[in-house]
Design goal:
Layout lengths: L6 H12 L18 H8 L4 E4 L7 H6 L1 H21 L4 E5 L28 H21 L3 E6 L1 E3 L12 H15 L3 E5 L5 E6 H14 L6 E3 L4 E3 H11 L5 E5 L14 H7 L7 H15 L7
Parallel strand pairs: 1-2, 2-3, 3-7, 4-6, 5-9
Antiparallel strand pairs: 6-8
């Protein structure tokens, strides 16, 4: 499993072990750089099933700062790993795509057949297009080599263990960090990028890991599959939810000079239910509280009051 020591990977490894899986190999980037084909050959050796979760990923600021790295790293890892897996005779590969691959103005809810209807939102395009090449490669390899690979497209993930470093974090951990820092320092205002109008659909990390296992067990087709929670919320309302959960009594300032990102993100997950029975189980309100509680437990000087 690539990315097995990361945010989603840690949860997936835990669930697989609970199901009785023992021989789980988790390569590390320091010793097994997946941008190098020979390392991928080593990683897939004598493996029956490959989960590809590894990615170079971050929030809007990180996307703007490192578009070249995001494109190269992600396309190189995916291309090399799938090529090594099919040559090694791996029985199945389950790869994680990204909602960033969808065109900027895709009608909501996003349906899988719309993924080729336009260009992704510009700040996400290098990352989104690199990950979308997993789908192209998967379909080409199934057609030519009969290689069984599937690509899952999740909505924005969140939950305990997420990345809270402001240099790399996505919106939920980024807001939690900002609110907590303001509370601790006695500030009465925090600044948030954009105008708060974009909407997002968030998927709790445990639900995402469960969907990946279900797809590994039951889904064997070329078409991509969305997985989401079914809840769409504006960034403004999300920020207000977190302020309430964290008992912050200050105000929000919206920095409209900063990019909003894609206007709306909300997927149609009916195919995931039809193909392998996936339904998200964690409401956003519950998942946010669990995420905040986890973060505060890792910040010993922080507590809600």
């Amino acid at each position: 499993m690539t990315g097995g020591s990361g945010f989603l990977g840690n949860v997936l490894v835990k669930l697989l072990r609970e199901k009785g899986c023992k021989d789980i190999r988790v390569p590390r980037s320091k010793s097994d750089d997946l941008r190098v084909l020979d390392n991928c050959v080593k990683v897939v050796h004598e493996r029956d099933l490959i989960f590809h979760l590894a990615a170079n990923v971050g929030g809007i600021g990180y996307n703007l700062e490192k578009p070249g790295e995001l494109f190269y790293d992600n396309i190189a890892m995916g291309t090399n790993l799938m090529e090594a897996a099919r040559k090694a005779g791996v029985e199945k590969m389950v790869a994680m795509g990204t909602i960033c691959s969808y065109p900027c103005h895709t009608p909501t809810p996003f349906k899988e057949e719309s993924i080729w209807d336009g260009y992704p939102e510009e700040t996400n395009a290098p990352y989104g297009l690199a990950k979308k090449m997993l789908l192209v490669q998967s379909q080409a390899y199934r057609k030519q080599y009969d290689f069984n690979s599937v690509v899952i497209f999740p909505t924005n993930l969140y939950g305990p263990g997420d990345h809270f470093d402001p240099r790399y974090s996505h919106v939920i951990p980024g807001l939690i960090r900002k609110i907590n820092d303001a509370r601790r320092s006695g500030q009465d205002r925090i600044t948030v990028w954009g105008d708060g109008s974009p909407t997002r659909e968030f998927l709790y990390v445990d639900d995402a890991a469960r969907a990946i296992i279900m797809a590994a067990e039951s889904y064997n087709k070329s078409e991509p599959v969305n997985i989401g929670s079914g809840e769409e919320i504006s960034i403004r309302n999300l920020a207000n939810m977190l302020i309430e959960i964290m008992h912050f009594h200050g105000s929000l300032d919206w920095d409209k000079a900063k990019p909003n990102g894609q206007p709306r993100r909300h997927v149609d997950s009916t195919k995931a239910y039809a193909e392998f029975g996936f339904v998200a189980q964690t409401p956003l309100s519950v998942g946010l509280r669990k995420t905040v509680e986890w973060f505060l437990s890792a910040e010993p000087t922080s507590k809600l009051s």
